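Researcher: Re-running this chain for the archive, since the previous output was lost when a drive failed. Same request as before.
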Amino acid sequence: MKKYQKILQECPLFDGIEEDDLFRMLVCLGARVESFDKKYTVIAEGNPARYIGIVLAGSVQIIRIDYYGNRSILTEAGTAEVFGEAFACAETPSIPVTVIANEPCEIMLIDCSHILHTCSNHCGFHQQLIFNLMKDLATKTILFHQKIEIISKRTTRDKLLTYLMFQAKKAGGNRFEIPFDRQELADFLEVDRSGLSAEISKLRKEGILESDKNEFILL
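Model: Regenerated structure tokens:
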């Protein structure tokens, strides 16, 4: 666990928790670390929602596959980010999404019940941990509403531009990189890949943006 100390201290779940308490807390929570190869399923749809995941290395994608096999990327979690907390806190009997390793990664898994129910040791950091979890859930709710705003647009063009404007605002400038390739971006926007590529080409010709792979410039 020691080699992950810096990453864990950057994780919002452990904000405000003293360094000396961190590893004692992880033992108390029964945290474990697992490694996954690229495209490996970290959490499968249909399983009980028990675990909160923390990305220690690499990244994961949270995806939804509908009845007809259409794939939609809900979000991505990178190093020091948390995933699965909403479903675990709700004690969802059957998780409706799948978490896939986007690249070789290492994941810390914590049984959510160990966070929500204080232990017999009456650890002083437990209340801070619960506060951090609630704050993280609130932040994710805001991001979820942003996703709804994006995909609720009527056309592929409007969905793309709305998404890129959010990314530009996040980056603090008109030049930025997105975490998706073309197929992944299409899955995130819930549009056809060929239609998305056509819209990007049109926007280039119109002088609205420039792009190179996953790098974009809004003009």
